[in-house]
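Margin note: ligand = protoporphyrin IX containing FE.
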Amino acid sequence: MTATSASRLRPFDEIPSVGTLTMLRQILGGKGGRIDMLGPLDRHYRELGPLVRQPAGPFRMVNLFGPDACQTVLMDRDGIFSAERPWTQIMGRIFPNGLLLKDGDEHRKHRRIMHQAFRRPVLRTYVERMTPMIERGIAEWGGMGDFLAFDAVKELTLDMAASIFLGVDLGPETRRLNRAFEDMVAASMSRIRLPIPGLEFQAGLKGRETLSAFLCELIPARREGDGSDMFSELCRAEDEDGSRLDDQAIIDHMIFLMMAAHDTSTSTLTSMIYELARHPEWQERVREEALGLGKAVLDFEDVEEREALTWVMRETLRRYPPLPVIPRVTTDDFEWCGYEIPSGSMVVVSPIHTHHMAEWWTAPWTFDPERFSPGRDESKRHTFMWIPFGGGPHHCLGFKFAEAQIKGIMHQLVLRYRWRVDPGYRMPLQQAPISKPMDGLPVALEPIR
Ligand code: HEM
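Resulting structure:
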């Protein structure tokens, strides 16, 4: 930043602000004490403008609103928005060295190698592996008494992760690994981050040891073998120069991948089940489309062809992005809307807020999948107005995998069951750290065949 431009800028402390206590009260003020991000963000934007400072002890923190801000921060053309710094602070003890916890050349190098495990032919083999698991998994749902959609989806996606990510067959080993993994996820969200026996955090550290030891022992065989699971793909992956990941990098990336994949897909599927229960006309439309395809299961080639299902998925991700906000830390001074944002500030952009801006979306609080139909596609008004998978260098590496998994499950679900919720029911959603229903989402499930 030049001296002349700096002199015209207003200092950080003059950015309109909301007090930390007010913010916390608003965020935790959702019904039943659940975390609500959208309400406060929307209010701050409307009352205070496109950037809002949030005093947070010694830290400088600012929310930037709107698709332009999302684009500038996420695209990071000048290399001044670190993902490593905030994400390491948030999850570095339990998920160290994951791809999102890297910046610059190091990030590019690892991403290039990891991309090998997400190429189209490889994704096809994952889909082939997941199809019978979905069939088996949802067949059992019919027999459950009080059906909680979130719990059922979570169990299914965990079992799928063991098979598709790790190449482990269902059995006692899966249960042990799933347990270890769940302990890690709980620990990463735990408020008390001390390794004290009996506390969540300590269980998470132990979970990490269990999973690391399991992966470490298998790496030599997976490097030599021809397995079609993600772990095997990563063990064999190399970039155009022939560089490979070392053993520790494989372990760290695998553990991070499982975390990045699991709660996000579970959250999206649960929100879709909810919206399709509240909008039976859309449930029927997705079912009609599935019947029209004439296949009980979705092949890889069909994933992108399912029009109504695609719109429903996109609209659900608009209304309920699993990651409601995305943090960065500036590594250089930066200016936005006439204000100076010094190096070392935490800058937060919000998919959830951007997805509900009346300036960009028609009736943004209404569930309307048609808004994504080709003639009308509202998301085309700005490249960064629909960003559930982020954007720029850290754009979600697994978005195609997520799409295939979510659609594969929904395709089979609509063919096998009809479901509904009580007309007055509203899902009590906790929007952070990952969007999920606090009551597990009880739905009435009726088998079709
Ligand atoms: C609906 C499901 C998913 C959603 C909404 C989602 C969302 C996101 C978002 C918003 C980011 C960017 C975060 C940031 O910029 O700070 C991200 C990054 C990432 N996601 Fe996903 N994700 C999903 C599923 C998956 C799956 C299934 C995988 C792996 C199989 C995955 C792997 C990753 C990885 C590795 C990154 C880091 C990329 C990088 O730093 O280069 N995600 N995801």
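The chain has a mean pLDDT of 91.
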